[in-house]
Design a protein that fits this description.
By secondary structure, the protein is an alpha/beta fold. It is built from ten helices and 15 strands.
Length: 371
């Protein structure tokens, strides 16, 4: 018997607003109940907020689930299942010095595969033509367990690899940005007349484009070339330009049009994929929900009001990732305001709140663990 989660993640139109809503609600309700029954710490956290799964009567009630802040995962693990039995474990990048440790069960990995197929099919990411890759991220190492390194390599499943070059190479005990290696690869790839795909951190793409423009170098590649960005700007947020500046440089220097550029949003504590539309908005797929909460009261806000981004997904049995509160500030809009044709709501990320400004619905969670 196929449960509601497999039906949900198997939906062909990933932005469906019809029957998927009920499937999503039922999946979230069941996932919350599962973790409450099998994770004593999570149960105490819910009890501390006087929350009962019985409060979830329909999809409009999902905001009642107390979200766990991503900061909590940076100092605590919250396993519902034995971590030794999980399919994969990963960490956040830890640019602030602390890392979240997250693990996914085999069922979640299967659901994630369905999700990736659905995203790739809808947004035109699949290609049978072998491509040359520039991975604007980490060279693989067994010791590197960051989630972003895993997702960057997984992005290569959308098109077969002819050759791969990495921006961050491991030398003398640390990762270093190898711009010269990227330039050499671009020259070689241009001569091969094969499509290229640049995958990874937007900051490194921007640094590469600026360097090439400064040197007066331009490249042109076969039709079908694409850019797939994700992972955010991390410690380079001060250098972050307007998106149109990056897209303009991309076409000028590499000849890749803006409509061939895709950006992804995600978090290691929220294993869901958000891919931007042709107008570069992140629409909310059927397997997720985004709630914007007031920074003072944590009450859900209506469309157009900025607040903290709360992400909901029923994907994992390994740990209660069902509702997490990020330290991102964002705004949610009706899908019709976008104009791309996708009817699902979309959100914009405005930046990050200071850690000291974030309060949590799972108040006292750390104190409960100490007790």
């Amino acid at each position: 018997m196929i449960d509601c989660r497999h039906k949900l993640y198997g939906i062909r139109d990933i932005y469906q607003q019809g029957s998927a809503k009920q499937l999503f609600f039922q999946a979230v309700k069941e996932n919350t109940a599962f973790h409450r029954a099998n994770n004593p710490v999570y149960k105490r956290m819910l009890d501390a907020r006087e929350f009962s799964v019985k409060e979830l009567g329909n999809g409009d009630d999902l905001h009642r689930i107390p979200p766990i802040p991503t900061m909590f995962f940076k100092s605590h693990t919250l396993w519902t299942m034995d971590p030794a039995c999980l399919a994969v474990q990963a960490t956040s990048s830890g640019t602030g010095g602390r890392k979240s440790q997250i693990g996914l069960d085999y069922n979640a990995l299967m659901l994630g595969t369905q999700m990736g197929v659905g995203v790739g099919r809808f947004h035109g990411l699949f290609s049978p033509v072998p491509v040359n890759y520039l991975i604007l991220g980490y060279q693989p190492r067994r010791e590197n367990r960051t989630a972003i390194s895993k997702t960057q390599r997984a992005s290569m499943l959308y098109a077969p690899a002819r050759h791969v070059t990495y921006a961050l190479v491991y030398r003398d005990g640390e990762y270093r940005l190898d711009l010269d290696g990227l330039k050499t690869a671009l020259s070689r790839y241009e001569r091969q007349r094969a499509p290229v795909r640049l995958v990874g951190f937007p900051a490194y793409l921007y640094f590469l484009l600026k360097e090439l423009k400064k040197e007066g170098k331009c490249f042109r590649f076969r039709e079908g070339s694409m850019v797939m960005l994700g992972g955010g700007w991390k410690q380079f947020y001060r250098e972050q330009p307007e998106k149109q500046q990056v897209y303009g440089l991309l076409e000028e220097v590499l000849g890749i049009r803006e409509d061939c550029c895709r950006e992804f949003f995600g978090a290691v504590e929220h294993p869901s994929m958000y891919c931007d539309c042709l107008r570069h908005h992140f629409h909310v797929p059927a397997y997720s929900q985004v709630i914007i909460r007031d920074v003072d009261t944590l009450e859900p806000l209506e469309y157009g009001k900025p607040g903290l981004v709360n992400l909901i997904t029923p994907i994992a049995d390994s740990m209660p990732l069902v509702s997490v509160m990020t330290d991102d500030l964002g705004i949610l809009y009706p899908g019709a305001h976008c104009g791309c044709g996708i009817k699902a709501p979309y959100f914009k990320i405005l930046g990050r709140a200071g850690l000291e400004e974030i309060r949590t619905c799972a108040a006292g969670a750390g104190e409960l663990l100490r007790q």
